Amino acid sequence: MDDANLEKLLNQHQWLHNMLQNMPSPYRSHWEIQYFSPNDSIAMQDEQVRYFHILVQGELKVEHLLAEGYTYTIARLKPGQMIGDIELNLNRPFACQIEAISPAILLAIKADVYQQWIQEDAHFLAQVNKQLALKLYEMAKQSAENTYLPLRDKLLRYLYDLVKHVNFNEQVAYITTLPRLEMANQLGVTVRSINRVLKELKEQRIIYVNKKQVILNEWSRIMIEHELENKEQK
């Protein structure tokens, strides 16, 4: 990539400018811009890492394929997050598969160039270490919740995250068409278990279900928030 295109991206995204501000000039031309459509694969589990990536735009999902054929969603990546940092630090293949949820733009640099670069850029190395620490922290929380929280609590937290910032003065309801399989993968359970708890919540008039849609309104948020708060106080 030429400097003009890189500078355009840096001007559009202040966080990216801050991240790459000390990158030595000889490495800047090695960046490539890669574009992905929804469901496109960015990385395959067990494949060798050829590129280090920074997500600039869009959303990605990180999944681990289990031997039994199940898929477990590890994380969703937002702009500013890195791909390949863990594997390149350990010299290991990808532990998970990564694919685009929405149209995505990524900056990519070849793995060997990345390894040379971080030896000369202490500022960026600090950024990498911060993200590694954050990933470890989030994985520890997720592991504890998946192990010890009842499924109802996990699903309520998941649904609450969807609506906690929704302005119900501007919209009557929040409708999610996320497939039940996707919910199950994110929570590490079976679709049958998800359906059982959704049925309970529907019967209790906490949520509404219309075919494949799960519908939440302000009353849903109040009820979910109240139940979660009561559980935390016990």
Automatic annotation (TrEMBL):
Record flagged with keyword Transcription: yes
Cited SMART domains: cNMP, HTH_CRP
UniProt KW keywords: Activator, DNA-binding, Transcription, Transcription regulation
GO molecular function, one term: DNA binding
Record's GO cellular component terms: cytosol
The protein's name in its UniProt record: Crp/Fnr family transcriptional regulator
Domain Cyclic nucleotide-binding: 35-118
Domain annotation HTH crp-type: ranges: 149-219
Keyword DNA-binding annotated: yes
